[in-house]
Amino acid sequence: MISKYIKKNFFTLLLVPYAVGLIGILLPVSRNLFLSLTPLMLAYSFVLVVAEEGSWVKRKVIPILIILFGSFLVEYIGVNRGWLFGDYQYGTALGFKFGGVPIIIAFNWVMLCIAGRSFVNLVMKNNLAASALAAVLITAFDFLLEPVAIRFGWWWWTGGEIPLFNYACWFGFAFLFQLMLYNPRVTFRGYWIILVQTIFFWVLLLM
Question: Along the chain (207 residues), what's the average pLDDT of each consecutive run of 10 residues?
């Protein structure tokens, strides 16, 4: 029932909350309130994308669970050991943390991987090429997100410099995760989340 409702009203459910959220953040009087809702908005986006892409996602439960726990593990190593991504820490704005890593971050990795696969399926079916293209897309998304995240205290880098190694790790792990999501079937509209979030973060970057 919920999945059918989301599919029927996908664009309304996607665009309205992001438009309201953007206005709320741009207005100084409501900025702190709407920024505090960031973890809920990321969770909402995850549910929206999974429901929209549900017909093939259901067949990828094991790979998605691997991505969920795998992404949390690499983030945990990155935060607590500094061996991956670089020397960085998460703030409190992204909600409950375990071992210094917000739980929502792992779900966000899954959402980006599903949306990325949804997009590349529009243009190619070869798993290796599609995985590489999706990894490039996800890494480019992180490149845009980094300065926005730093500005709003979602996370920060020791010394204030974003290392190139961060983007290499994003591409590498995104590529490995994408290899597990091989899906030559006709895609649905989950990829729209990347476009909407790109516009959302780009506007915030111009603040």
Answer: 82 96 96 96 96 88 96 96 92 95 97 94 88 96 95 91 94 96 80 96 90
β-strands 101-102, 97-98 pairing: antiparallel
Please give the structure tokens belonging to residue 61.
């439960």
Q: How far apart are CA 97 and CA 81, in angstroms?
A: 16
Q: Do residues 174 and 116 lie in contact, with contact meaning Cβ atoms separated by under 8 Å?
A: yes
Which CA distances in Å does 70 have to 74, 75, 124, 151?
6, 9, 26, 27
The CA distance from 39 to 94, in Å, is 5
**Is the four-CA dihedral 52, 121, 105, 139 of positive or negative sign?**
negative
Residue 41, SS3 per DSSP? helix
Q: Alpha-carbon distance 205 to 147, whole Å? A: 7
Which of 91, 86, 75 is closest to 153 using CA atoms? 91
Closest CA to 71 of 108, 120, 98, 115: 108
Coil/strand/helix, residue 53: coil
Crossing angle of helices 103-120/164-179, nearest 10°? 70
Residues 117/175, Cβ–Cβ less than 8 Å: no
Q: Do 128 and 149 form a contact (C-beta atoms < 8 A)?
A: no
Q: Are strands 88-90 and 101-102 parallel, antiparallel or unpaired?
A: unpaired
User: What pTM did the predictor assign?
Assistant: 0.94
Could you give the residue ranges of the DSSP H alpha helices within 152-191? 164-179
